[in-house]
Amino acid sequence: MRPERAVILVTGGSRGIGAATAQALAADGWAVALTYRTNSDAAAQVVSLIEAEGGAAAALMLDVTDPDSADAVLEQASKALDGPVLGLINNAGVRADDLAVSLDDDAWDSVLETNLTGAFRLTRSALRGMIRARYGRVVNIASVVGPRANAGQANYAAAKAGLIGFTKTAAVEVARRGVTINAVAPGFVRTDMTDGVLDDAVLAAIPARRAGEPQEVAACVSFLASDAAAYVTGSTLFVDGGMSA
Ligand SMILES: NC(=O)c1ccc[n+]([C@@H]2O[C@H](COP(=O)([O-])OP(=O)(O)OC[C@H]3O[C@@H](n4cnc5c(N)ncnc54)[C@H](OP(=O)(O)O)[C@@H]3O)[C@@H](O)[C@H]2O)c1
């Protein structure tokens, strides 16, 4: 059972999937620390929405590419919400698309640092407290891209496939400690990240013939973070309208 006053950290909680996930987890009874990199106003608005529903939330600044940020943000989250951090949603992500033949080192490094290395560092730091508590929930937001090819996204695909591999191995390392680590792999979801991408050709290639909504991803994260999912670990849940089928 989730201990009382448990805090969950949602990276990139200011917008899109992260904002919807922060709200869903608060409704589930988690105290939610949501992070933003630049968008403090948007993050404050998500906190207000959660508080208006009777939930507990705090907004914290975090750049997941800063190697020294992981321990500090976990400590800030615990202090701000007065509880142990026993949940982590690695959601912060970026894309910088180009064909592999012309992809430059900056586009490769920034996408790998944000989407993969950032998630690794935070998970490493958070696991220490979770193992001590013998309770923890980590959910990594991967993508259908990685398991599936998508021309123009070799860096993003490498990061997300890496995140799924990391999820599986880290999960088996901590499974007997009451800590689960899973991935959620969305297809095309209507957020700023897909602004200008969701044209008729893209939608026609999705078996469900529509994009997903951030709340549909949040519902899956909510399940994996719940006590009901205690026996689910190392798995990847695709939320993609059938794209990976
Ligand atoms: N949308 C899709 O179709 C889709 C599909 C598959 C997977 N995903 C994955 O789902 C996750 C969320 O995507 P989204 O569509 O909701 O994206 P989004 O609307 O572009 O939001 C991205 C979030 O990540 C934060 N962020 C970006 N760089 C960061 C950094 N270096 N450190 C900390 N935070 C950072 C942003 O903070 P600021 O607001 O402060 O900039 C923002 O909160 C990502 O991992 C993405 O790869 C999305």
Main attributes?
245 residues, alpha/beta, 7-stranded parallel sheet, 42% helix
Characterization of the model:
The radius of gyration is 17 Å and the shape is globular. The mean pLDDT is about 100. It has a single domain, classed as 3-Layer(aba) Sandwich (Rossmann fold). The protein is about 40% helix and about 15% strand. The protein has about 240 residues and is α/β, with parallel strands linked by helices. It has 7 helices and 7 strands. It has a 7-stranded parallel sheet with strand order 3-2-1-4-5-6-7, with helices on both faces. It has helices spanning about 15-25, 40-50, 70-80, 105-135, 155-175, 200-205, 215-225; strands at about 5-10, 30-35, 55-60, 85-90, 135-140, 180-185, 235-240. NADP nicotinamide-adenine-dinucleotide phosphate binds near residues 16, 42 and 186.
Structural class: alpha/beta
Distance between the termini: 33 Å
Are any ligands bound, and if so which? NADP nicotinamide-adenine-dinucleotide phosphate
SSE run: EHEHEHEHEHEHHE
Taken from the alpha-carbon principal axes, the silhouette is: globular
**CATH level-two architecture:** 3-Layer(aba) Sandwich
Largest sheet: 7 strands, parallel
Output the number of helix runs. 7
Which strand order spans the largest sheet, edge to edge or round the barrel?
3-2-1-4-5-6-7
**In what range is the share of β-strand residues?**
15-25%
Brief write-up:
The protein is of the alpha/beta class and 245 residues long. 42% of the residues lie in helices and 16% in strands.
